[in-house]
C-alpha cells in the first residue's frame, strides 16, 4: 500500500506546494522517482512528468526514456522529454559529466516552468541522499550551511520523498509491484556519491543500524543552529554595517570585537560575494597600512583608516549596437568606433584599438556588444578556438573590466574582434583578400 497520507502530510507540513499547484515531476525511470509519480497520482495532485536523456548509456538510456513515456501515459499526465549532448557540453564548459547533466537538467526544467506553466519542480531525493550529501560536503569542506543537508524546499525545487529512506522505498515499490528501470551506472563506484553509497555508508550502518534516524535528528539540530547563526548575523548587520549613500562602512574596531571573529566576519561579508580565503587575508590586513583593495565578483572593499568601505563595482550596462554596411561611425560605451573601407589589403599595425579585416568575409549587420558567457573565438595565430573567459584570464583582464571590452560580432554569430586585444584568425587579411574594412576604437 502506498504511503499516501504520510506523503500528503509531509507536503503540507513543509509547505512544499498548495493543492491545485501545477507541479513538474522529474522522473528518471528509477525506483525513487517512479514511486514519487505514483504518489502524486494517488494524492490527486496536478502534475506532469519530465524525463532527461543525457545520451550517456546508449540503448539503455533510450529504453529508460520510452519506459517513462509509458508511465506518463499510464498515469494520464503530460510528458516532456529532451535529449542532451552531455559530453560535448561538459567538454565545452570544462565541467564534469555530473555537473554538466545537472546544469542541463535544471536549465530545461526552469524553461518548462516558463513555457508550460509549472510552479514547482519535484525531485525524488530521500533521506539517504541527504546523508550522502552531508558526507560529501564534509569531505570537500563546508560551512554550517553544508550540514543542513538537502532541504525539503529550495526556491521552486521541492523534495516530497525526504520522509522516506532508501530501504523503505524499496519495500513499498516491491509490495506494490511497481515497475521501474535500473540505471546501470548506479552500481559504479567511479562517482564519489556512489562510492559513499556502496562502500562508506554500509560500514557506518554496521556501527549504527539506525543511521538514517540519527542523521535526521542531527539535521534538525544543524538547521536550528544555522537559524540561530543567521539571526545573530542579521542583528550584527543592523548594528555595525552603516550605509553611506552607495557605500557600506564597517568599523575595524567593531570587527575586532567579534567573537567568533572569523565566522561572523565571513557571514557579514558573504552577501557582497567575498569568499572565505579573502576573509582570511582581510583579517590580517586590518592592522596594516590603509589603501589595500579586495575584490569579489560584484563589489570592491577598501581598507581605509579605521574603516572598511564596500562599494558596488561601477559597470555601465552595455547595450548591443548594430553596424550596417553603410555605417561610418557609432558610439559604444566610452568609445567611438569608426569604419573605413579600402580597396587595398592594408594591415593596421602597432595600434591595438584598430584592426584590418577581410571585407569579403563580413556579413551585415554587424554587432558591437559586451562578451557573453559561452562566447568563443579563434585568436589570431591559433587554429583552435578559445573561450573568451579563458582568453581574458590569460590576458590578465580584471574581472570587473571584462564587460567593458567591445566585442565585434558578424551576422553569422562569429566573433570578429575583441577591441583592444585580438582579431579572430578567420577574419585576418591574407593573400586572397581583395578588400579590407578597418575598424578603429577611439576613447571618448
Say how many strands there are: 22
Mean pLDDT: 89
State the share of residues found in helices, binned by percent.
25-40%
Q: Give the biggest sheet.
A: 6 strands, mixed
Distance between the termini: 74 Å
Strand order, largest beta sheet: 3-2-1-4-6-5
Structural class: alpha+beta
Report the C-alpha radius of gyration, rounded: 28 Å
Please state roughly what percent of the residues sit in beta strands, choosing from under 5%, 5-15%, 15-25%, 25-35%, 35-45% or over 45%.
15-25%
Low-confidence stretches: none
Please report the number of helical segments: 13
Shape: globular
Explain this structure to me?
The protein has 13 helices and 22 strands. It has 444 residues and is an alpha+beta fold. A hairpin with an 8-residue loop joins β17 and β18 (386-387). It is globular.
Amino acid at each position: 500500500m502506498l504511503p499516501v497520507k504520510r506523503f500528503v502530510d509531509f507536503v503540507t507540513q513543509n509547505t512544499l506546494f498548495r493543492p491545485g499547484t501545477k507541479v513538474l515531476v522529474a522522473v528518471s525511470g528509477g525506483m525513487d522517482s517512479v514511486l514519487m509519480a505514483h504518489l502524486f497520482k494517488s494524492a490527486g495532485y496536478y502534475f506532469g512528468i519530465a524525463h532527461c536523456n543525457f545520451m550517456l548509456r546508449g540503448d539503455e538510456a533510450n529504453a529508460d526514456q520510452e519506459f517513462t513515456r509509458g508511465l506518463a501515459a499510464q498515469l494520464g499526465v503530460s510528458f516532456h522529454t529532451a535529449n542532451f549532448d552531455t559530453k560535448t557540453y561538459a567538454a565545452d564548459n570544462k565541467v564534469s559529466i555530473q555537473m554538466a547533466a545537472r546544469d542541463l537538467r535544471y536549465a530545461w526544467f526552469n524553461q518548462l516552468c516558463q513555457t508550460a506553466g509549472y510552479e514547482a519542480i519535484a525531485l525524488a531525493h530521500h533521506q539517504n541522499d541527504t546523508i550522502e550529501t552531508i558526507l560529501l560536503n564534509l569531505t570537500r569542506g563546508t560551512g554550517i550551511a553544508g550540514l543542513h543537508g538537502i532541504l525539503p524546499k529550495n526556491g521552486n525545487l521541492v523534495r516530497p520523498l525526504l520522509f522516506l529512506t532508501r530501504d523503505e522505498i524499496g519495500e513499498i515499490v516491491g509490495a506494490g509491484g511497481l515497475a521501474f528501470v535500473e540505471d546501470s551506472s548506479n552500481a559504479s563506484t567511479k562517482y564519489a556519491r556512489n562510492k559513499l553509497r556502496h562502500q562508506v555508508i554500509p560500514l557506518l550502518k554496521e556501527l549504527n543500524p539506525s543511521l538514517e534516524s540519527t542523521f535526521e535528528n542531527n539535521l534538525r539540530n544543524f538547521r536550528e543552529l544555522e537559524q540561530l547563526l543567521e539571526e545573530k548575523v542579521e542583528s550584527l548587520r543592523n548594528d555595525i554595517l552603516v550605509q553611506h549613500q552607495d557605500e557600506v562602512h564597517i568599523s575595524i574596531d567593531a570587527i575586532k570585537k567579534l567573537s567568533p571573529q572569523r565566522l561572523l566576519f565571513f557571514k557579514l561579508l558573504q552577501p557582497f560575494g567575498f569568499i572565505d580565503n579573502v576573509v582570511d587575508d582581510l583579517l590580517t590586513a586590518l592592522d596594516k597600512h590603509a589603501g589595500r583593495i579586495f575584490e569579489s565578483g560584484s563589489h570592491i572593499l577598501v581598507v581605509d583608516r579605521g574603516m572598511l568601505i564596500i562599494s558596488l563595482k561601477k559597470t555601465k550596462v552595455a547595450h548591443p549596437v548594430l553596424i550596417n554596411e553603410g555605417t561610418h561611425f557609432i558610439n559604444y560605451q566610452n568609445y567611438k568606433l569608426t569604419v573605413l573601407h579600402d580597396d587595398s589589403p592594408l594591415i593596421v599595425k602597432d595600434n591595438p584599438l584598430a584592426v584590418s579585416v577581410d571585407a569579403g568575409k563580413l556579413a551585415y549587420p554587424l554587432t558591437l556588444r559586451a562578451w557573453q558567457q559561452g562566447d568563443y573565438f579563434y585568436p589570431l595565430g591559433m587554429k583552435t578556438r578559445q573561450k573568451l573567459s579563458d582568453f581574458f584570464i590569460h590576458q590578465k583582464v580584471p574581472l570587473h573590466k571584462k564587460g567593458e571590452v567591445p566585442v565585434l560580432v558578424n551576422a553569422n554569430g562569429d566573433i570578429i574582434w575583441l577591441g583592444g586585444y585580438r582579431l579572430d584568425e578567420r577574419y585576418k587579411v591574407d593573400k586572397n583578400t581583395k578588400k579590407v574594412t578597418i575598424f578603429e576604437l577611439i576613447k571618448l
